[in-house]
Specification:
This protein is about 30% helix and about 20% strand. It is of the alpha/beta class and about 475 residues long. It has 2 domains: about 200 residues, Polyamine Oxidase, Chain A, domain 2, CATH 3.90.660.10; about 190 residues, FAD/NAD(P)-binding domain (3-Layer(bba) Sandwich). Helix 1 links the parallel strand 1 and strand 2. Helix 1 packs parallel to helix 6, helix 1 runs parallel beside helix 13 and helix 8 packs across helix 12.
């Protein structure tokens, strides 16, 4: 049975916890794909190497791949990292398109800074952290009226009702989608229009925006079966790329190498890319779940049934980001979170102000699940126009157009296939363990999708890389 853990909205009882737990978003967007390639010298590793000093090929220079390669290199095992992009980091990507404001198009937050390994890495990298608070929030209704205490209380009640319905459904004999569980549990047809609007707002803001899957796809049993670190959430104002740069230090990384085939036998492994071929004794695959689902990489021999089942059953969600930059701040610069309760139209419900942490007039809008998929296909003009409809509803018709923007399209990115994984209806958390299971002592897997307890997070990717390195070192 699923973890029966109620999701509690943070802040004053109404600010959605949703986007706060999000970790791995991404981008194919108008910015291209080039970024840093590598940096200085490996440090700490794992256990003492018990494998011969043969090459280990690591496919993917995201956090999972770089972590594993770092630990293996520190243990004396020669490694070669192979990356399809012309930059490192994968779904961790700091854009320098605005030189005075580094923008994290991928991961943005360290979620729960107490005991989180990414907090330690940030300190090691000399990165400054800035916390954000769900208490620092404001909400608007569909007419653009800022909610008072009565409105906040109504959202809190709707949230309680939604998560009560989900908790009851987690004890049902059969799993169902989150949408079905909520609507059956609340008697949807008997609810008034205003109550339906609040329920949809909570569903998008607290569930879809957190787990990146649509409420029709998320498993009620397992959508929230994730562990969390305590402490506040924090961003890296100078950019999350400080983490990937640290992990990449001194590693051999071949970029621009899109992998097409991976084969193995008793003699070793071969990885074929768009540029050539690499040989080694073992291979660690850290590409996102969405890439595995696309079957863009051919495996020879074919993957075992348990691995294929996990790949197809787990969900690859989309949570896109729309950064809008203005000439000046026209909203409350002291507020971190801005929420909007739509009445039809596109559900742009979660917004973040970067005015306080960066001192710049930048708003971030999240496009989750179905809206995120639409953003994948829309032009920039369509995306900005849709988002600005909500901005002007909240702050007035005279709000000027943004002077520039940055938009992610993770789901349309062939090297990502989505933002991060979720537990879909028909899946089970043990499938993540199946996906992580080594094959024939030659083929290994890592990445946030292979983490049963820490999926969808940067720290999950990091921990999976450490786990895979240990498996390789002991010859699992």
């Amino acid at each position: 049975m699923a973890v029966d853990r109620r999701q509690v909205l943070a802040g004053a009882g109404w600010a959605a916890a949703g986007v706060g737990a999000m970790s791995l978003t991404g981008c194919t967007s108008p910015l291209g794909g080039d970024g840093p390639s590598a940096a200085p010298t490996p440090s700490r590793g794992g256990a003492t190497a018990s494998v011969p000093a043969n090459d280990v090929l690591v496919v993917g220079a995201g956090v999972a791949g770089l972590t594993a390669a770092r630990d293996l290199a520190a243990a004396g095992v020669p490694v070669q990292v192979i990356e399809g992009r012309n930059r490192i980091g994968g779904r961790l990507w700091t854009s320098d398109a605005w030189p005075d404001v580094p923008i994290d198009l991928g991961a943005s937050w360290i979620h729960g800074t107490t005991g989180n390994p990414i907090t330690r890495l940030a300190k090691e990298a000399g990165a400054t952290l800035a916390t954000t608070s769900y208490d620092s929030a404001v909400a608007f209704d569909a007419s653009g009226r800022q909610l008072g205490r009565a409105g906040e209380a109504a959202i809190a009640r709707a949230s309680d009702e939604v998560f009560d319905a989900l908790a009851l459904a987690q004890d049902a004999d059969a799993d169902q989608s989150v949408r079905s569980a909520i609507r059956r549990g609340l008697g949807w047809a008997e609810l008034g229009t205003d109550q339906q609007r609040l329920v949809d707002f909570v569903t998008v803001g607290s569930i879809e925006s957190e787990y990146a899957g649509s409420a029709e796809e998320l498993s009620t049993y397992w959508f929230d079966s994730i562990k969390e670190f305590p402490g506040p959430d924090a961003i890296l104002p100078a950019g999350y790329s400080a983490i990937s740069d640290l992990l990449a230090a001194g590693l051999p990384i071949a970029t621009g190498q899109v992998v097409t085939d991976i084969s193995w036998d008793d003699a070793g492994v071969q990885v074929t890319t768009s540029m050539g071929r690499f040989s080694g004794s073992r291979v660690l695959v850290t590409v996102p779940l969405g890439v595995l689902q696309s079957e863009a990489i051919r495996f020879t021999p074919g993957l075992p049934a348990r691995t294929r089942e996990a790949i197809q059953a787990l969900g690859s969600g989309v949570l896109n980001k729309v950064f809008l930059r203005f000439d000046e701040v026209f909203w409350d610069a002291d507020v971190d979170w801005i929420e909007f309760i739509p009445d039809g139209g596109e559900p742009w419900v979660e917004w973040v102000s970067f005015a306080r942490p960066t001192g710049r007039p930048v708003l971030l809008a999240f496009a989750a699940a179905n809206l995120g998929r639409r953003v994948d296909t829309w032009t920039d003009a369509q995306v900005v126009s849709s988002a600005m409809t909500v901005v002007r509803t909240m702050y007035g018709r005279d709000v000027p157009d943004p002077i520039t923007w940055q938009i992610t399209r993770w789901g349309a990115d062939p090297l990502a296939g989505g933002s991060y994984s979720f537990n879909a209806l028909g899946s089970h958390p043990r499938m993540r363990e199946a996906l992580a299971t080594p094959i024939d002592g030659r083929l290994y897997f890592a990445g946030e999708a292979t983490e049963r307890d820490w999926f969808s997070t940067v720290h999950g990717a990091y921990l999976s890389g450490q786990r895979a390195a240990r498996e390789i070192l002991r010859g699992a």
